[in-house]
Specification:
globular; about 10% strand; alpha/beta; about 210 residues
Length: about 210
């Protein structure tokens, strides 16, 4: 492959977007970054990975700026001038930019499509799915998760993701205008959807 391929996957909660992204990473020989990105951001910042995990895809990151305990800091410690809402987002941006220097990547969420918007090798995809399928997937993940609980989880998670994405990118999460390709995984299923996305990417970059 002549150039690195950078695939950014946005997804509705329970849409199978994570699975599709992993299949794409395998197909294109790319490194996969979902929660793995949090570890990179932690290394960039000096904060512990736990801090990024608890504020993952949260608008503004800081839930309680003046109540951050010492355990949230890594051994290196960090109280520099980037200790702010925007600062933590920038650390994650730095981690994304560092990752693409290593080769082809597949990123799941975290505004990677916006961070890398000027890169000529990027393609952005949004995976949606019918609510019935998403509810079933969420119920399968959680032990004793009812249909009502699953719907609430979906609503809460998507509220967080959309607020985060809209806040930092100035675009609209899930809107077709924000991505190169939007596709409903319920129509053909996970595997066939991944094949269609892969074919789109191949044509996009003449691979």
């Amino acid at each position: 492959m002549k150039d690195n391929v950078i695939i950014c996957v946005g997804r509705q909660f329970g849409s199978g977007g994570h699975s599709i992204a992993k299949l794409l990473a395998k197909r294109f020989g790319a490194k996969f970054y979902d929660r793995e990105l949090l570890n990179l951001a932690a290394k960039e910042s000096g904060f512990s990975e736990k801090f990024f995990e608890e504020n993952d895809e949260q608008k503004g990151f800081f839930r309680s700026l003046f109540n951050i305990d010492v355990p949230y800091l890594s051994e290196s410690g960090f109280y520099g001038n980037k200790f702010s809402q925007q600062g933590l987002f920038e650390f994650q941006c730095d981690a994304i930019r560092s990752a693409v220097k290593e080769g082809s990547c597949v990123f799941v969420g975290r505004c990677a499509d916006y961070v890398l918007r000027d890169d000529p090798n990027i393609v952005s995809v949004f995976i949606s799915a019918d609510i019935t399928d998403r509810v079933v997937r969420v119920m399968q993940r959680g032990k004793d998760c009812s249909e009502e609980s699953a719907k609430k989880i979906i609503c809460d998670k998507e509220g967080e993701r959309s607020s985060y994405y809209n806040y930092y990118t100035g675009k609209k999460w899930g809107d077709a205008a924000s991505y190169d390709l939007c596709i409903n995984s319920s129509i053909l299923g996970i595997d066939a959807t991944e094949e269609i996305v892969a074919e789109f990417i191949k044509r996009r970059f003449s691979l």
